[in-house]
């Protein structure tokens, strides 16, 4: 029966039905099959849908999405890129390094990989190409830099992870800080190495550097406000989302003056569309997950793994391969809601730290963002740079994908990278 419903789901996805409706339809068919009562299954649907969204933690999701849209339309990312450009362009691969740092900073502000890739890519791609940077490197740098949006907090996937598992969202946020910084540094090393033969540019005058810092200081203060407030205990992650949203409105409407009241309606409509898409996937996954629970899939898999007495690292490797394969056909929210209810009991039974596993899962999801055929950032880059081919983009992201796999390898030997900061939070 498990195989049957999995096949139904795959067929629905293959014919092009949106992920949310594929999950929901497969789940409802499963409910009808077990209950033998279509009317009763339909009556259960709104109850399960309400249950999927009945979590105060999820209030942060639309708030972070709204904040991301405000900062995206308010062109805050442009100021961050200019700051990196003025301060770093004279170094080897300086503009590429500036792009990675701008992505990391914008990721720390918005928590959205797509917004990060669109915002920084629209500025960085033409600028780097005009300075003689290799096209594949330019495309790979922006695509990979954009993935930092889900690892460096605030991160919507971390909120969803907390909602499903019951883990502290504040600790999940903190777990991504050190790995996010390390991965950013690895990306920078790749860019510098690839640009070692590129002619150096003249440094920007100090007056221009300070002017860029003065312009972007309000955007730089936002991650300090959010992460610092959570870390100090001044407010919760959900409260941080609300405060960050209000702060982003203030700086874009009154400080930078890049937005007006006329811009607010389309911004809110975009935020509602994105939020609705995420919540629709959550409801569909809940219906499908209900069938899996009735079939005792999580319990059976946990028992199977335990009885196999296999080395836990072999199981861990299999989990990573599974997520990578799913990343080739699904986006991150779907993967989290389909796999996590099944994988969480297994990793707990095997003795893995759930906070640590959160980081491993997110790096895998980062890989999914740049993995064909449906890596979201690949298509974003093709939209930003229509003259670039998909093969050029894929070639460009390969070294950065290897770097992500390398960081997962490091985390296996040094789990403290993910667990140290959350452990010191009181």
Major sheet: none
Q: Using only CA atoms, what is the Rg? A: 22 Å
Spell the H/E element sequence.
HHHHHHHHHHHHHHHHHHHHH
Class computed from helices, strands and strand pairing: mainly alpha
Shape: globular
How large is the share of residues in beta strands? under 5%
Record field, number of beta strands: 0
Mean pLDDT: 85
The count of domains is 1
Terminal-residue CA separation: 46 Å
Number of helices: 21
Helix content: over 70%
Q: Which residue ranges are poorly predicted, with pLDDT under 50 across at least 5 consecutive positions?
A: none
Task: Describe, in plain words, how this protein is organized in 3D.
With 426 residues, this protein is mostly helical. It has one domain (21-423). Helices cover 80% and strands 0% of the residues. The chain contains 21 helices and no strands. The protein has helices spanning 2-14, 19-35, 38-53, 60-73, 76-88, 94-110, 113-130, 135-147, 156-165, 169-175, 177-194, 206-232, 237-255, 261-294, 297-308, 312-327, 332-349, 354-369, 376-384, 390-413, 416-423. Helix 2 packs across helix 3, helix 4 packs parallel to helix 13 and helix 6 (94-110) runs parallel beside helix 8 (135-147). The longest helix is centred in the middle third of the chain and has 34 residues, at 261-294. The mean pLDDT is 85.
Can you lay out the helices and strands and say which pair or pack?
Layout lengths: L1 H13 L4 H17 L2 H16 L6 H14 L2 H13 L5 H17 L2 H18 L4 H13 L8 H10 L3 H7 L1 H18 L11 H27 L4 H19 L5 H34 L2 H12 L3 H16 L4 H18 L4 H16 L6 H9 L5 H24 L2 H8 L3
Helix pairs in contact: 1-2, 2-3, 2-14, 3-14, 4-13, 4-14, 5-6, 5-12, 6-7, 6-8, 6-11, 7-8, 7-19, 8-11, 8-19, 8-20, 9-17, 10-21, 11-20, 12-13, 14-17, 15-17, 16-17, 16-18, 17-18, 18-20
């Amino acid at each position: 029966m498990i195989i049957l419903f999995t096949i139904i789901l795959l067929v629905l996805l293959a014919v092009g039905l949106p992920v949310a409706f594929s999950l929901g339809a497969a789940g409802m068919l499963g409910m009808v099959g077990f209950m033998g009562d279509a009317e009763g299954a339909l009556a259960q649907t709104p109850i399960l849908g309400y249950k999927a969204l009945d979590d105060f933690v999820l209030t942060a999701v639309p708030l972070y999405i709204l904040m991301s849209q405000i900062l995206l339309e308010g062109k805050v990312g442009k100021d961050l890129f200019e700051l990196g450009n003025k301060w770093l362009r004279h170094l080897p691969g300086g503009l590429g390094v500036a792009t990675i740092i701008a992505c990391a900073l914008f990721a720390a502000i918005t928590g959205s990989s797509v917004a990060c890739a669109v915002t920084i890519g629209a500025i960085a791609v033409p600028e780097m190409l005009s300075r003689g940077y290799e096209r594949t490197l330019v495309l790979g740098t922006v695509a990979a830099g954009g993935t930092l949006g889900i690892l460096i907090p605030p991160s919507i996937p971390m909120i969803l992870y907390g909602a499903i598992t019951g883990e502290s969202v504040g600790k999940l946020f903190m777990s991504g800080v050190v790995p996010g910084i390390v991965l950013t540094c690895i990306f920078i090393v790749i860019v510098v190495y690839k640009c070692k033969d590129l002619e150096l540019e003249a440094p920007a005058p100090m007056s221009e550097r300070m002017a860029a810092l003065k312009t972007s200081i309000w955007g730089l203060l936002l991650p300090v406000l959010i992460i610092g407030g959570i870390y100090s205990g001044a407010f919760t992650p959900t409260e941080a989302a609300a405060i960050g949203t209000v702060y982003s409105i203030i700086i874009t409407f009154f400080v930078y003056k890049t937005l007006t009241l006329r811009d607010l309606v389309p911004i809110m409509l975009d935020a509602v569309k994105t939020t609705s898409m995420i919540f629709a996937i959550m409801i569909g996954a809940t219906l499908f997950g209900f069938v899996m629970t009735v079939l005792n899939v999580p319990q059976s898999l946990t028992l199977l793994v335990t009885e196999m007495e296999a080395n836990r690292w072999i199981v861990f490797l299999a989990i990573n391969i599974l997520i990578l394969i799913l990343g080739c056909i699904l986006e991150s929210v779907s993967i989290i809601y389909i796999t996590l209810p099944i994988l969480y009991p297994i990793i707990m039974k095997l003795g893995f730290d759930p906070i640590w596993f959160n980081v491993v899962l997110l790096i895998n999801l980062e890989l999914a963002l740049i993995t064909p055929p449906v890596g979201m950032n690949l298509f974003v880059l093709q939209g930003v740079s229509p003259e670039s081919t998909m093969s050029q983009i894929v070639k460009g992201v390969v070294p950065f994908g290897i770097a992500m796999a390398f960081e997962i390898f490091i985390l296996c030997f040094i789990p403290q990278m993910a667990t140290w900061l959350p452990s010191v939070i009181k």
